Amino acid sequence: MKLHAVLSLLILLCSITITEAQERFPDPGYVFDDSEVPRIDIFLNSDSLEQLLLPENRDSRHEYPATFYFKKGDQVDTIQNVGFRLRGNTSRSAQKKSFKISFNAFESGKKYHGLEKMNLNGEHNDPTITRSKMCWDMYRQAAIPASRSNHIELYVNSIYRGVYINVEHIDEEFCQLRYGGEGNLYKCLWPADMKYRGGDPLQYAEPESWGRQAYELKTNLDEYDYSDLADLIYTLNITGPNDFVCELESRFEVDDYLRTIAMDILVSNWDGPIVNKNNFYLYSNPRTGKFHYIPYDLDNTFGIDWFGVDWANTTIYDWSSYSGEDRPLYDKIMSVPEYRDRLSFYFNQFIQDFFNVEVQESRIEELRDAIGPLRSNDSFSSSDYGWNLNDFNTSFDTGIGSHVDYGLKDYISSRTSSVESELELNNIVPYAVKINAKRSTAAITINYAFEDDEDFELSLIYSIDGGTEQTVALSHSGDYDIAYDADAEILQYRFEVNDGTHQRSYPYCGEYEVSLFREAIPTLVINEIMASNESAYVDEAGEYNDWIELYNYGTESVALGKLYLSDKSDNPTKWQFPEYSLGPNEYIIIWADEDGEQGDFHANFKLSASGEFIGLFDSDDNANQVIDSLSFGAQTTDISLARMPNGTGPFELDDNHSAGENNDINSSIEDSLIDDVRIHPNPTNGLILIESNIVWQRLTVLSIEGKVILERNYTPVLDLSDLTEGMYLLQFSNLERSIFKELVKL
Question: Which CATH number applies to 431-515: 2.40.50.180, 1.20.120.530, 2.60.40.10, 1.10.3210.10?
């Protein structure tokens, strides 16, 4: 096989997954879009800012209340009561400090465009203020799930703090977006050497002598279970060579990390795990049972040096030698010939595709030109090492001395040459680009793709419920359908490749398994939608946004937490419902406004008034099959599309929109409010609006057991933010009558 052949981009964008539908490489979105440099303003009490910047508070993690402004073009967003503090390590002692903004510091669940936090990095060691941005972009080009980033200009209390890089925070939102699930996320800092500490998992949770943990669990703190990490480290250190590959591949996404090794060595990220046993995350994915490696903190790259090492010319096959210690994660992987050969393939592939001056020169100049005018007034970028504007411009091309021996362009040129001079390009095993299993009513469709530029044989071996194995010869990519009976329970399958030199199974050991058992289809329908809402129905934030009503037509409650809603038929898992049980004959409103910070029932997409698709999709276990869907054309403002008869009929225009209620009421009664009360939103996070043509005198809020919680004169607007989560009754009364309405407080 000719290893240097350029494979399709698909190799870089896909990995072996079983019904893995998350977006591993999400678009930049509004916050990280780098087509222009936005401005961030932070305002906080002057005394608080003074305290934050005091030298004796350099290590403090105290968050000061502040107001956040994000300006892009003519649009300015304002968020009050955010947390503002220092972040980083050496930057805490620098004049140009790095900062963290926490939108949820004082209000749980508060977000900005889906983000709970922002990391604003001053890049004080980098005269270009661009190295980490280049890295983040390249790592994503290499199909490594890395942070999104962009340059911003920062003002604090109207003082210009300079050009910063806004880097996506690695947290549960980061992992949920890319992997789904709620697995353990570990932040690994010096001295996270991945060496065996013993059989007790909590040994890996112990703090170092100065108080910080090397492996800090950032999620699932109630369980505080380190056993998955301990198991991985045991595999790296104790497992013998005969079992190592099998055990490692069952616990760790090896190919993701091989790509990362290649990029770390290409950009000389010596501050990562291979040399400095520092700065990385590990995420334990409950969907696959495997760890994902996540890179972190990429500023000491592209030749930045503090140790007298010429990083552009370091050897590529023994990189841990620059640490002077063993590095099990790297060393054990490099001891496997197949992994070493594939690493060589990635070195070669990345150099050909993007890690070269020909490709990167225009990008480097584009970034320089974008931030150059902002750098001219950035006095903080000159305060640590005395760099001036000429140093800034020069350092994109060549080094300027001290710890900056290379510019971006001459580093890439030198590194490319040194790596190519060392490369050992051997034949590699035909590689599985994609393995997906998708279930329909009576068949499993296995979608697969294998790459090689030489001939090889590919076979699929499968069995149902442990029966006789069937072997099928396949082409190198395509779909294969496996039919099964209604009472079948488990499909087991594997692929085998043979190119005359190598034989390999996918998975390396064992088999893939897919449950054939299908739970009952949820008794849900999309019952009503409004794609152009200007004055018809307001959400809990007082905004008029697109909305979608679901209705449970069954006799049992439906758990929504594993279901999905999407405006893309080819991306069924775009938005997952929160944990919530919808009772029989109940309705729920989903706001399609891309504003998850306003509540759990705000989806991450909007509806188009010119028409589009909406789909309600089943759980991952049920192969994300369509429960209900609607394709609609151009819509009229404040007119909904509603099923008539309610829950079963075709969609009809409804100028009496009946969000959260039976559509038949509005279609059969001229005035829908003659004998009723409408509450929205319901469920609510706090503020509710009440519509009624009846003159009420008293409004009473009761617990579901009938205890009076609140009683007052009738008002059409009521703030229930102080209520705890649960079901309540609202009683509306006057001299003639009294009626009750149910309300859910989230």
Answer: 2.60.40.10
